[in-house]
Specification:
By secondary structure, this protein is α/β, with parallel strands linked by helices. It is built from nine helices and seven strands. Strand 6, helix 7 and strand 7 form a beta-alpha-beta unit.
Length: 240
């Protein structure tokens, strides 16, 4: 039996119209990559900060993210966030009032995400995967605050890319140990013990609670080299 025999009968009648539509969408995706790359190319070194969109301004997580972003900005790092409310707003706000650019990578959603007002550079995406690529491409470090599915998605994406050597190794810093401890314990008790990952894969992340220690850890990682990708790392990242 051939592959053609296995396809549903009649599927080919509707295919041309949808195939043409899908082909045109590719140009829109390409444009998103090109525009974002050109607009963001001068922002490095940069740190991407992730966290919950549901965190109110009077919450300790919001205030902690704002302090971290301000210290990073004053230390010379552009700060990249998702451009929306909650921790994203806190990150943009801290950087906005600092010395370095505040970057918001906004996403168009069915229930539209309102962009926060603390952005020196605002770039809007229709596709999550294009947006996620920009978080990785321009980041010298990831700072991950408490958050939900989206935050976990960004965290695990970065860990996977580094583990599989599809991306250069950058600091991945989890902020507020009590929030993350259960997940880290599960990684150790289940993933490591059942040999789904290697024990050293847990070294891809570090837990830090104090803003000044976050900045210090990033500088320590790069103390023997520059922040920009090395030639071999640049080549690696072209194949993300």
């Amino acid at each position: 039996m051939t592959a053609k025999d296995k396809l549903p009968h009649g599927a080919g009648h509707a295919a041309p119209r949808f195939n043409a539509r899908e082909s045109w969408r590719i140009f829109g995706i390409m444009a998103e990559f090109v525009e974002a790359t050109e607009r963001l190319n001068a922002i490095r070194p940069a740190v991407s900060i992730f966290g919950s969109a549901r965190t109110p301004p009077d919450h300790m997580y919001y205030m902690l993210a704002e302090r971290i972003a301000r210290q990073l900005s004053d230390a010379g790092f552009s700060v990249i966030s998702g451009g929306g409310p909650g921790i994203m707003e806190a990150a943009n706000k801290g950087a906005y009032f600092g010395k370095s650019p505040s970057i918001g990578l906004n996403i168009q959603l069915p229930h539209e995400q309102a962009a926060n007002p603390y952005q020196d550079i605002s770039q809007t995406f229709q596709h999550f995967f294009a947006r996620k690529y920009m978080f990785v491409k321009f980041a010298s470090a990831y700072v991950v605050m408490p958050g939900g599915f989206g935050t976990l998605d960004e965290l695990l994406e970065a860990m996977t890319l580094i583990q599989t050597r599809k991306s250069r190794k950058i600091p991945i810093i989890l902020v507020h140990g009590p929030f993350w401890q259960g997940l880290l314990d599960w990684f150790r008790d289940r993933l490591v013990s059942e040999r789904m990952i290697n024990p050293e894969d847990l070294d891809l992340v570090q837990v830090i609670d104090q803003p000044e220690e976050v900045v210090e850890a990033i500088f320590k990682h790069y103390e023997t080299r520059g922040f920009l990708p090395l030639p071999e790392e640049h080549e690696l990242m072209l194949n993300l």
